[in-house]
Specification:
heterodimer; A: 661 residues; alpha+beta; Immunoglobulin-like; PH-domain like; 7-stranded antiparallel beta sheet; 6-stranded antiparallel beta sheet; 18 helices; 18 strands; B: 125 residues; Pdz3 Domain; 30% strand; globular; protein kinase binding (chain B); cell membrane (chain B); cytoplasm (chain B)
């Protein structure tokens, strides 16, 4: 137990209960003597304590917010690591004591239970979606509420943290690009993922920028600002769990100034969550909206959790074997067998394996394989090993033999261990999952603050009827100019339909109530009054561009002298038309069996001018939009406003579209 | 109505023939649909399997042609006039139902109660 040349000491804090007990002679200090593994952990603890001291000093010294956040993050990680090591140390000491007790009672038989192999577990591409209210996206009022977040990942005794990400409402997801690999994980591992966040608004940190604070206090605080202030001033008010709360008795926790992270959400992943692709897991969210560090989380975390058990990546057993190849009873071939992953590779010689030559024979060893030791072969000393697999529908049996009985035993043992590992690691043993080792850190590229997807989309907010009218009036004036110049715009080619078609498209009902603005003009146009009336009808069918064209064509006809005169009154009628349309819109939106019914709501003559080529294509989109709007109860006819609403509704992932048919 | 990957999908279906009705100058069927492969399937209140991206009936208007023909709330539409509805986007589904030159739509719908009815009647024999 004693080792004279090793300075072993147990760290016992002064004034602690343990020290008192030792002083009283209740325990010999040697009971707490460290074993070599203990000193390992002790070194780690010492290292982490030094790191923590450094982080505290940095935190006290730094002036910039970013540095303070980073330092606070490393402080939190160091604390977590120290706690983990301490508890590990505790567990080991307890285990030692238990072992000594067991040895003393000396009735513990040989431990026969198998332990599964360890493996590597890697978690990468963490993404946590956020769920901002749509008012946050589209109305950019107010200060940007920013939070600094990072993830702490703990498996067994290993703790890693991701990089820190600043989150504000321009981000739709929190993405962590790090790949974290845990090296020694058992199949029953529990990977705890914790999301910490810290509010990043200067006003609420203690002591920094008192000016802003003073100015805020001098003017009256609003309700929400006051709440935040109160929350910030009461440190423990809204943090549900705080890592610093569970400080160990043996080490004093230094109290630090500066930004403090709070636990926002956590989840625990285990073997059942391991998959070779991305999966979404639920998050348990601590904290509520009142807290300063709150972020509206959607409630899930998406990541790729992969595991590589050692039985899949390392050689579990290797040695010389004899394999019966071919049909002859005595056809034994000497091979060098290597058991790795789900296969037993048989090479001619050991050097072949090192040279990566193709194996002579590959026998699959997986969940469906059956291995048994055969009857003693009269010709050989040892038992044969029969490996049976199912390839397709048929059974294939390979017979192997080792050189001696001990070898046979060792091979069987290896096979049993392999089967046990496979049963423990389950889906990880079907195929080798790829784990990319994190590449050496590239210097962080500071990208300028990007707008979110929503900011990139320019939605024209011209949902004012006056704006629309202005646009249309401008267009009409353009036509006027063109008419005087005498060259039709290039899109007129789309309207080259035969006039005789249009009379057939006269709608069954009379459009008269809407034509009051038009009628004064019809007598002027002597040629095709019928066409004009069909033209003005707004419930015409999809060939409505054709119906419009005669009117335009008449503009180019020899009656052109009156064209300029005719165009001007149209501007007024446009307004009138739009107002009648708005009134009529409630009825026109019932269904969209006739698509142009819906799309006809926009002013027809110049609508075609504006977007003639897209009239048919937009009819499909307006169909969808209208049906949706009928359900939502909106019926504003203005094209721009409608498109804005459609876009908003379609972009919102929380909407589940319903259409009336 | 849930599916096992790798196995053919089978369901007990009912044929429903809806005659469209003229309302004003529009043809309506009198129900609303939800779902589609471009929609979020977890928000479907009627589906058993929350990954089912099929088209479901979310509202049936009282006395309308759909109700008269036997369509019920929560039905999953499998086919419309021979067109498949199990792997379509929401807009595609709506279009197949609202073709203006057809005034009858023949749907194949399925619902949980159908399967149970069939199972019970089979058990009785």
């Amino acid at each position: 137990m004693f080792c004279r040349n090793q300075t072993a000491r147990a760290t016992i804090a002064r004034g602690s209960a343990l020290e008192m007990e030792i002083r009283r002679g209740k325990f010999r200090q040697s009971v707490f003597m460290e074993t070599p593994q203990d000193s390992d952990i002790q070194k780690k603890i010492d290292y982490e304590i030094r790191m923590r001291e450094g982080a505290c000093k940095l935190l006290a010294a730094c002036s910039q917010r970013d540095q303070a956040l980073e330092a606070s993050k490393s402080l939190l990680t160091c604390n977590a690591r120290i706690m983990a090591y301490m508890s590990e140390l505790q567990r080991m000491k307890e285990a030692q004591v238990m072992q000594r007790v067991a040895r003393r009672s000396s009735d513990a038989g040989p431990m026969d239970d198998r332990s599964p192999c360890k493996g590597k577990v890697a978690i990468s591409d963490l993404r946590i979606p956020l769920m901002w209210k749509d008012t946050d996206y589209f109305k950019n009022k107010g200060e940007l509420h920013r939070c600094a977040v990072f993830c702490l990942l703990q498996l067994g005794g290993e703790i890693f943290d991701t990089d820190m990400v600043m989150v504000d409402r321009t981000l739709t997801d929190i993405c962590f690009d790090n790949t974290i690999v845990f090296n020694e994980a058992g199949p029953g591992f529990e990977l705890r993922v914790e999301l910490y966040s810290c509010c990043s608004e200067e006003d609420y940190s203690a002591g920094s920028t008192p000016r802003k604070l003073a100015s805020k206090l001098s003017s009256s605080l609003g309700r929400s600002a006051g709440k935040k202030m109160r929350a910030a001033l009461e440190p423990g008010a809204c943090s549900a769990t705080s890592n610093g709360g569970g400080a160990t008795i043996l080490l004093p926790v230094p109290s630090v100034q500066g930004p403090k992270y709070h636990l926002l959400a956590h989840t625990t992943l285990s073997l059942s969550h391991v998959q070779d692709s991305f999966r979404t897991h639920d998050l348990t969210i601590t904290g509520n909206e009142e807290c300063s560090y709150w972020l509206p989380l959607y409630g899930g975390v998406c990541c790729r959790l992969a595991a590589q058990p050692h039985c899949m990546t390392q050689q579990m057993m290797s040695g010389c074997l004899r394999v019966k190849l071919g049909g002859e009873p005595q056809g034994w071939t000497n091979v060098y067998g290597v058991l790795k992953g789900t296969n037993l590779f048989c090479y001619h010689q050991k050097e072949d394996m090192e040279a990566k030559v193709e194996p002579v024979l590959t026998i699959g060893i997986n969940k469906e394989t059956r291995i048994r030791a055969a009857e003693k072969d009269p010709h050989s000393k040892a038992q044969n090993i029969c490996i049976t697999n199912q390839y397709g529908g048929e059974e294939v049996t390979h017979t192997l033999a080792a050189d001696s009985r001990e070898d046979t035993q060792r091979w069987m043992e290896a096979f049993w261990q392999q089967f046990f590992d496979m049963s423990q690691w389950r889906q990880c043993c079907d195929d080798l999952m790829k784990i990319e080792l994190p590449s050496p850190r590239k210097p962080a590229i500071v990208t300028p603050k990007q707008g979110s997807l929503y900011h990139e989309m320019v939605i024209d907010k011209s949902d004012d009827i006056g704006t629309v009218t202005d646009i249309l009036a401008r267009r009409i004036e353009e036509f006027e100019l063109r008419a005087q110049l005498g060259s039709p715009p290039h899109w007129m080619a789309l309207f080259d339909e035969d006039p005789p078609h249009t009379p057939q498209h006269l709608p069954p009902h009379s459009p008269s109530p809407r034509l009051h603005s038009r009628q004064p003009r019809s007598p002027r146009c002597q040629r095709t009054p019928g066409l004009l009336s069909s033209n003005a009808s707004l419930t015409s069918d999809s060939d409505s561009p054709a119906s419009v064209s005669p009117c335009f064509r008449q503009a180019w006809s020899p009656v052109a002298s009156s064209s300029s005169g005719r165009f001007r009154p149209r501007t007024l009628s446009l307004d009138a038309k739009l107002s009648t349309l708005r009134g009529r819109g409630y009825n026109g939106f019932r269904c969209n069996c006739q698509p142009p019914t819906a799309s006809s709501v926009s002013p027809r003559p110049t609508q075609t001018a504006l977007s003639c080529s897209s009239s048919t294509s937009s009819s499909s989109s307006s169909e969808g939009s209208n049906s949706q709007e009928s359900d939502l109860g909106f019926s504003r006819p203005s094209g721009a406003r409608r498109s804005l609403r459609i876009l908003r509704a379609k972009l919102d992932p929380r909407n589940w579209l319903q259409s009336q048919v | 109505m849930s599916f096992i990957p790798g196995q053919p999908v089978s369901a007990v279906v009912q044929r429903i023939e809806i005659h469209k009705l003229y309302e004003g100058d529009n043809l309506i069927l009198g129900f609303s649909i939800g779902g589609g492969i471009d929609q979020d399937p977890t928000q479907n209140p009627f589906s058993e399997d929350k990954t089912d991206k099929g088209i479901y009936v979310t509202r049936v208007s009282k006395g309308g042609p759909a109700e008269v023909a036997g369509l019920r709330l929560g039905d999953k539409i499998m086919q419309v006039n021979g067109w498949d509805m199990t792997m379509v986007t929401h807009d595609q589904a709506r279009k197949k139902l609202t073709k203006k030159n057809e005034d009858v739509v023949r749907l194949l719908v399925t619902r949980k109660s159908l399967e149970e009815t069939v199972r019970q009647s089979m058990m009785q024999h």
